[in-house]
Amino acid sequence: MMPEQHDDAPLTDHRMALAREWDDLVEQVRALEGFEDFLRPPPLENLLPAATNGPVVIVNVSQRRCDALILSADEMTTRELPDLTAADAAAWTNRYLNTLRDVERAAERPALAGPDDPMALTQARQHLAKTRRAAEVMLRELLAWLWRAITEPVLVQLGILGPPTGGAAWPRLWWCPTGPLTLLPLHAAGHHDTDDGQHRTVIDRVVSSYTPTVRALVEARKPHAEELARADSLLVVSQGDAPGQPRLPGVDREVAMIESLIPAARRTVLAGAAATLAAVQEELTQHRWVHFSCHGTQDLADPSEGGLLLRDGILTIADITSRQYFAEFACLSACKTATGGVSLLDEAITLAAALHYAGYRHVIGTLWSVYDSAATDLFQTVYTAMAVDGRLHPQRSAIALHQATRALRDTNRTRPSAWIPFTHTGP
């Protein structure tokens, strides 16, 4: 008996018609001003300006092989990364996220135990100390792996073998990681336990910044397309005791520090009950600079639902990226570790990247929640370097953060969690 024959011609014709319709629509989009390269790889000459002040390193993670694509002012070169695999990147990122999440949950247990149960309080504190020790071990191992697999080969390729000498300026380098690496601290990679004189760390060789894409860095280097109508003023959003969240002990000190550097005429403070969704969204349109002292959330399963925890709800990433701010600087002094696994992760949209996409040229962010008073001291150092005559100078933010972070690292070589979280995104 012969098998039944099917005529696939109608289905094939339908698919061909859809393909022609798709091509026609793409051509219509490309005919629009500003969309000439829609769905095309950007020409190399359009990307080279991103490397005006230093190389841009795109770390590509693939199942077949992994490479660093190194963009300089006049060419693109590649560096194969044989010690980096997609499986290792996912495994390390999962271990990293799970360990940090364990610390955050353990940090909440003492408050839940309450003063009337001393045994439970003691056990909660012991558990917190144990999870923090485990986190330090994980971080040291992670930084060593990042150094071996990614950052040392890149720095060697670039000929950056130590810190600048003879009073030379620190070199700049922009990291553009992909896939699960988007969540990992490339800027902190290396061996920090002791100062052995070999400078086997990124932070002792270059000033690191991040960019979510090369195009984003190109755009960030351009003058704003329109005059900034807002005054040179800073919005401070202070929410140290958001409902259902651990209190952020450094919030009041941060606000006082900022008030000592920025005069009242150039700052607006929304604190506590005043830091509502409506109030913050309104004031963001009136200020070129913003400092957030509040909890944040990052959800890898649904990145648009992550955001900043205010008095009456979450200012989501979707809210932030729905507008264009043409602003200069944003600082996130506390946020929660991203939630969710990374087995299916393509790209993570962090809070810092969201603010950068929304138009904030420079963004200082934190990779996880920071409760230590050392964090407030670091921000004071950064703001003191940036503030001159009562105005912020965001173009100093990357260098200021690098110097403050190195100083904090030097006093916390065996405690990387104290200084790793702080990052700079932008030109």
Secondary-structure blueprint:
Blueprint: H1 9-30, H2 44-47, E1 56-60, E2 67-71, E3 76-80, H3 86-113, H4 118-158, E4 172-177, E5 207-210, H5 214-221, E6 231-239, H6 251-261, E7 267-271, H7 277-284, E8 287-294, E9 296-299, E10 307-310, E11 313-316, H8 317-321, E12 327-332, E13 338-339, H9 351-357, E14 360-366, H10 373-386, E15 387-388, E16 391-392, H11 397-410, E17 422-425
Parallel strand pairs: 1-4, 4-5, 6-7, 6-8, 8-12, 9-13, 12-14
Antiparallel strand pairs: 1-2, 2-3, 9-10, 10-11, 14-17, 15-16
Helix pairs in contact: 3-4, 6-10, 10-11
Describe the structure.
Strand 15 and strand 16 form a beta hairpin. Helix 6 (251-261) packs parallel to helix 10 (373-386) and helix 10 (373-386) packs antiparallel against helix 11. The protein has helices spanning 9-30, 44-47, 86-113, 118-158, 214-221, 251-261, 277-284, 317-321, 351-357, 373-386, 397-410, and strands at residues 56-60, 67-71, 76-80, 172-177, 207-210, 231-239, 267-271, 287-294, 296-299, 307-310, 313-316, 327-332, 338-339, 360-366, 387-388, 391-392, 422-425. It is an alpha/beta fold. It folds into two domains: 67-216, no CATH class; 227-425, Rossmann fold (3-Layer(aba) Sandwich). The N and C termini lie far apart (71 Å). The strands form four sheets. Strands 7-6-8-12-14-17 form a six-stranded mixed sheet, with helices on both faces.
